[in-house]
Amino acid sequence: MKYRGEIDGLRAVAVVPVIFFHAGVDAFSGGYIGVDVFFVISGYLITSILLHDLQEQQFSLLTFYERRARRILPALCFVVLCCIPFAWLWMMPSELEDFGLSLVGVATFTSNILFWQQSGYFAASAELKPLLHTWSLAVEEQYYIFFPIFLAFVWRVRRSLILASFIVLGAASLALTQWATQNLPTANYYLAPMRFWEIVAGSICAVLLWRDVVRPNVAAAAVGVALVVFAMLSFTAATPTPSIWTVIPVFGTALIILFARDGNRIAAILDNPVFVFIGLISYSAYLWHQPLIAFFRLRTSDDPQGASLVALVMATFTLAWFSWRYVERPFRASPQNPLSRGNVLWLGSGALVAVASLGVFLSAFDGHPSRQTPAGESFAEIALVHDNLRPNVGLHSDCDTKHFALPSNCRTSPHPQTVLWGDSYAMQLAPALVASETRVDFVQVTKSSCGPFPGISAHFGKARWWQCTDFNDQALGWISNTDEIRTVIVSSAFSQLLYPTYERDGTVVDPAEVEERLIKNIVSTQSYLNGRGKLMIFVSPPPQNGRSLGLCYIRKRIFGQPYEDCNFDPDEMTARNTAITRILKRVEVSIPVIWFDDFLCDQATCKTNFDQISIYRDTGHLSISGAAELGRRVNLTGLIQQKISGPR
Hints:
Keywords: Acyltransferase, Hydrolase, Membrane, Transferase, Transmembrane, Transmembrane helix
Shape: globular
Largest sheet: 5 strands, parallel
Number of strands: 9
Organism: Sulfitobacter marinus
Structural class: mainly alpha
Radius of gyration: 27 Å
Distance between the termini: 77 Å
Protein name: Peptidoglycan/LPS O-acetylase OafA/YrhL, contains acyltransferase and SGNH-hydrolase domains
Helix content: 55-70%
GO cellular component, one term: membrane
InterPro entries: Acyl_transf_3_dom, Acyltransferase_3, SGNH
């Protein structure tokens, strides 16, 4: 197979945005599509090699898997083993358990399934998982378990059907992807069947070039580059991925592979020495970047920026060059390479068993809490503090309901006169209400990711959208028809400001109109409840700056640093905080609002802890003890009573 330098250049175009995206660089909001570019390249290269082997009657499954082992395993095992000492020294027991499981996932090429199972609204931040990026390797290897056999079968039955079979396979996978985008969004992201179509797109390119039915074309290649760059710069975290939108970068990559050839202008740009060099080390760069960024965040509880970002990027490419030169290349098949196929397969299998065994050890024994922190404290002591940062679901875990329900353990008395209604930002208020000096009996009616806005729901996937709409309809009906309920306390994370928002009839709310739509919804809900003899009060979300403030507290404890380092300037508040403030200032004309900023911020600082109590559990949720301490300090229920009884 003829070497194409422009393909290595295309790898560079893929890997650099991925690195900057994971580092949190806003300009590369769609940098994650670099992984999709890699999938297409992989499908093209692997299929081209297999077609050549089949045509030359050299096809062998053992040879194929030997090549994969030489290509994938040396650098992967090297990077993974380098991560273990830092995980042992810096990770909390629960984090070390998860890291150990991820080692097992890496060794068995099932990490995509593991991370899918570990995902969830209250799950540990994905940014802190050093091996999170290995999900894409797992997808590829799962695909290549059956693909060579499938291709060889079609070749022997009727090779003229190869292209048609790829088109059918790709179309089926894309259709499944689009269905899962609406119904199983997290599974859609991680699981292989919903990603196969991207690899198949590369396979289709390989067939077309193998048949020699496509000629180089600068204009078509330029369109491909434009599509890839457009996706990298315009896609955001709110763009469903993968979905029909992902066709844009996938099709763009296919155009580049097909038409940027034979030294034409686009091929020459991609084939320049800098791009080619980055492409050659791109696999190692991809392997190194996530552990470096994750361990940086674990060590500093901050995102890399400025000098630290530059240092991390330089470290990524330096280590990538080292592992490419001294780990990858020595294992590549060549006349000078003394390793036979049998040795490679045995060594590869042994390395994977060793990685899996280390993973089992690290995930066992409750994460080894007897370890000492760098500050000399036992991780067991830190674990007690960390346990307080578990999800704050209010009165009981039963209160985070999938469908509307009124569990008996979600009320503080048989006949409460107050209801706490909303999403997880309402749940977190329950400990504060219980701990307040003024006693108020209340019932908790809450659902994660489901703000108290009847008929207007953030789109987390079709199932949750419908569940939220139904939940709020029933909640509002129960509240309005329950005579003993007099006060309605509501709060929300306002997820509608981050995700696509849908009306009750399924129409999409224009993003530019979401704020106005929320304001009208809040006012109309309050007016409806007032007509039923209920008084509504809104509690604002806590101030937040986008960092995990609960994690910051734990990290300062681990490394013996002052907790005050986690405090932040009010000017650092997130854009969502600012938008929420605009909304609540508008509705405050008719609806009383409790502002967390009044308790936690002055002109210079927003505090994140009370002495040795972390107020936050993550970026915006209150910890259990933090909420309780806040309730005690400000007598939250007493303040609510004052607000609702005061003049409007």
